[in-house]
Amino acid sequence: MSKEYPILGSPLKVNGVTLKNRMITTSMSPGLGYVTPDNRPTQRLANYLEERAAGQTAMIIQTIVPWKRNELEASNPMIHALPSCYDETCIPDLKKYMVDPVHKHDGLICAQLYCVHDWKPSDELPESAYGPSDIAILKFMSGFKAMTIEQIHDFQKQYINGARVIKEAGFDAIEVMAGVGGIMSRFMAKATNNRTDEYGGSIENRARFACEVIAGVREALGPDFPIVVRWSPIDFIKSPAGEGLSMEEALQIAPMLEEAGADLHDLAVGWHETSEPLTTKVIEDCHWTWISQKIKTVAKKPVAQGYRNTDPTAMEQALQADKVDVIAGLRYSIADPDLPRKVMEDRTCDMRKCIVCCRCLDDVVSQGKPMNYCGVNPHLGAELDHEMYPKAEKKKRVMVVGSGPAGINAAVCAVERGHEVDLYEAGPRLGGCVKMSSIFSPYHERYLDYMNNLVKSHPEIKVHLKTPVDASVVKAAKPDAVIVAIGGDVMTLDVPGVDNANVLQSHDLLEMLNGNTPHTKSAFNNFMWWGATNVVKMHYTPSFARWATTAMNWPVSREVAIIGGGLPGCELGHLCMETGRRATIIEEKKKIGYDVGGSDRFGLINGFKKAENIEMHALTKVTEITDKGVKAVQTDKEGNQTEIFVPAKTVAITLGFKPNHALAESLKGICDEVYLVGDADEPHRIADATKAGYVAACAI
């Protein structure tokens, strides 16, 4: 029994099965590679599932489609590749690649039969969007077809047929998808249901479709087979036809679902069409458990809640407060397949927590790509085709230069594979740019702490701090392989005034954290940088730096011009917004936040638009920096140009990085194996660096 997480690590009976702890995954569709073009699960999916079952996940929920897709539909990148369960021919692959890998570790696997927006009524008809009516919440998601009574009954027959197939394949439970804007949830909401027959009007009629499906599954699968229902008590949508589902109505629906046969409520919040931020870092961990707390007042069955559950401490607190019975989520499991085991064993320091970067959501949901990247976990996609740390055929001396995500993942992977590893860092502490990004993105501090603990837990790695590396150092060390992970070169401006005393370069903070005092034209700033650098040499945490920056209004003043509207500039802009500073973001490209992930960008930019202390200027080129602010030329949609002036006491240049190939190029002829990874190779997001370092170490 866990001491730190006594409820989170405890078992719970759900009808005919017992969850070994209170952590289940929500459903997913990881895409091609995990599934074949003809809708069969692969060994990659089997490996993914087995990792999580071995990690003691109480129940893994996976999406399966109950109809057969044709070749055209299977090749459509925006139609998620899913395993099928349309007849008995699907059973051998479902068992071999999904059920058996989970049961091998005494885990439970639950099939969620897919029915979000799309449905395929027959082999002859195309897969397309259906619902109670043709009402669309968003214009680009139009094309919904109103289901006839006959089609409703056909859907139920198809669904129940799929349920029989998954039970025969050995699945332990079934999840009925009645949320997130899928077909059944569209029937529940007045906003998308204007029917006047027995499936429209009253709340009983609008919930009828979902209840009939659950009742049909119960009759087909028997009294002891667990039925989970995924539904959205709050959907944050409306249309001319009416409002979305209200909590008052949801409290009426919950007992109906149980009476129909539901054994576990798996609550989602919002629909895919919802504009309200649901899953991003602006929402605190376990925030949405207020919804499950409400449903628990009327539910007789256990209640799970998904979205924004990434911190086991917050999960335990929610359980202790009786806000929820089971923690549902996916990103915590993507980030660390062993998290439930670590919860049960009180291994808090070993937890690789999700940093809420939303890379997995951006790739899979927004772009229809396979799930290949996670900010903190490199073992996804093609890397799942081999074990996490495949043993090396020959032991080699490996030199890793740079200690950011790429460097540390490379060093740990290399030493786990059996190599002798030396890790070099020019500064006084590990972490690379994450040392700085953690100031502006507090969730990155989780990764910084984890990486430091990871290196400590591998004492075989010889760490060389305060040791810059050039070709002569490498030549003297005589390694068999070098992984260059030194980060990118900082991009700056070439305009008059760029060296003014009021200019803050993005790398100034990183230089300070690395023990080097930045120098400016201002005697005051030079004194402050000197003092800050010496303080940081003795004590540094991102939380402390965040507090100091806010409390002192230095090096960022109360009036800021931010040059560069990419991710770094937006992160600084968000900090300014939250701390009451007046900030103006200036960007040459068409969009502020052009490289911010799709999950984050809408909420971030919408927040900037609503904030009284933030202004944004896209299509704006800086021409000069003065001691009073920034001169620039702005171009409108018609191509007309206007000179503008942005007053500012601090001008922050946040243009990001460019490739940094110099060290790698200098090693040609010195070492036969040289790998250039992370931002040094090509600046991208944190997940790319995490993956690149690991992949390089696997290649040695």
Describe this structure in words.
This is NADH:flavin oxidoreductase. Residues 397-669 form the FAD/NAD(P)-binding domain. GO terms for molecular function: FMN binding; iron-sulfur cluster binding; metal ion binding; oxidoreductase activity. In the N-terminal section; belongs to the NADH:flavin oxidoreductase/NADH oxidase family. The chain has 700 residues and is of the alpha/beta class. The chain folds into 3 domains: 12-355, Aldolase class I (TIM Barrel); 397-488 and 659-699, NAD(P)-binding Rossmann-like Domain (Rossmann fold); 503-657, FAD/NAD(P)-binding domain (3-Layer(bba) Sandwich). The protein has an 8-stranded parallel β-sheet. Strands 18-17-16-19-30 form a 5-stranded parallel β-sheet, covered by helices on one side. Helix 14 (405-416) packs parallel to helix 24 and helix 15 packs across helix 20. The radius of gyration is 27 Å and the shape is globular.
Mean pLDDT equals 93
Strand content: 15-25%
Give the overall form.
globular
How many structural domains can be distinguished in the coordinates?
3
Number of helices: 24
* CATH superfamily (homologous) name of the largest domain: Aldolase class I
The CATH architecture designation of the largest domain is Alpha-Beta Barrel
Low-confidence stretches: none
Head-to-tail CA distance between termini? 41 Å
Strand order of the largest sheet: 3-15-14-13-10-9-5-4
- Overall structural class, as computed from helix and strand content, comes to alpha/beta
CATH topology of the largest domain: TIM Barrel
Question: What is Rg?
Answer: 27 Å
CATH class of the largest domain: Alpha Beta
The largest sheet is: 8 strands, parallel
